[in-house]
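Lecture 7, part B: from sequences to assemblies.

Below are the input chains for today's worked example.
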Amino acid sequence: MDAVREQVLVRLHRDDNIACLPCSVGEGSLVRFEEESWKLDSSRGPGFKIAIRAISKGEKILKFGVSIGSATVDIGAGEVVHLHNLKSDYIATYTLEEGAKYGN
Amino acid sequence: METEISAYLRSDGRKGIRNHLLVVYLVECAKHVADEISRQYRERGVQLVGFSGCFPNEYSKKMLRELCTHPNVGGVLMVSLGCEGFDRGFLKSAIEKSGRPVELFGIQSTGGTRKTIEAGCRWVENTLSIMDDVERVTMTTEELVVGTICGGSDGTSGITANPAIGHSFDRLVKEGASVIFEETGELIGCEQILAERATHPELGGALVACVEKAARYYDTLGHGSFAPGNADGGLTTIEEKSMGAYAKSGGSQISGILKPGDRPQKGGLYLLDVVPDGEVRFGFPNINDNAEIAELIACGSHMILFATGRGSVVGSVISPVIKVCGNSETYRHMKDDMDINAGRILDGDDNLEEVGEEIFAKVISVAQGEQTASESLGHQEFVLTYKSFTPLGPSCFPR
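Predicted structure of the full complex, as structure tokens:
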């Protein structure tokens, strides 16, 4: 993880309003897409989605050029897009509230 | 690249890339005895499969018939308790007809646990020496059947490992091989683009019907094919996971549909319809990844390409599983369990085509006998549950 270097986001399709992290990125690190860069508000792993433009509540989130669900709140450019602001248009996503910590 | 494969020729003419002897329990009550026999010969390729249920079921019968007469299998020892509902006569005669050595021991008729283990071990010992002499013949890439699945998926699986597998699938189809993808519950939202790839319009309609059936099934159960770990890895919705899973199928035309235990009639790309027909019963279509792997193998898959981003460690009985890892972080962290690092695509070191070609080369070397990571670690997971299917309609076959 490199706190100084900007990580360049990967957009999968030209219509997409999100792009993906190429690797783990720490909180406060800079991520960039084309001319814009943003400070990440929390640490995230590779493949996580970042809004590359402002997205309104109810708008479709586009990845691979197709809808992967709807925004549940207004999302600002540079924000992480995940369970807190995106929901399926098909079947609700099941997650564990607080996973038990593993020993090492 | 040397592409010639030295295969095991079975009496029914099928060609295998492994030479396993299976010990099969016909009900959970016979599992311990079967396990005690098989584990003594683990180093010599003896493996354990079976069906836990005591109630009869056409699907599990067909599955065990296809697994016991799989090209990678050279002999079968069946272990029955004696009172279970499984149709042992049907399975034994199907294996006999295939020309493979087979024996059936009943624990009650043999005189209990110890006597059955002893008798079973004697039979296995003898049969292994016969199987050592099985004829070897040349096999071409065209004769290979390769299945694919993804498990422990994350936000990287769908953008690296899955499309790289898709590239290797396109290459295999060009070579004339048969390749199979599945997880119709993870194609929800992709049905129209699937239909456009069908070789004939009736098949397109059947592909849409498969996915619609899956959507109905999961909707009734109130739970999609989505695990908490998927979300931990950056996947948010089932349609997002679907698009990633869909990429494993590559870009070839779709030749036909299979149901578990159906073999591809000729080379090409097939969709395996894993969701039961009729009203919802017996619970979730596939309770875990190995239930799907067993079905791909029952369709004749010589090996399985398994994409993972979170880091699945499973392998399988009968057919080797090749792990394609979606990102370099998981790959480095769990290196012993991985065969290919598709994370190089995200790192910018290689492109999809290069990793796809590496997967293709790995398919050939594994067919030539190279052990996969999960094989060398001894993974031999196996799951078989209750399901019900109606036979394929005419629109599902290749033309």
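Note for the exam: The CA atoms of residues 94 and 100 of chain A lie 16 Å apart. Keep this in mind when comparing with the next example.
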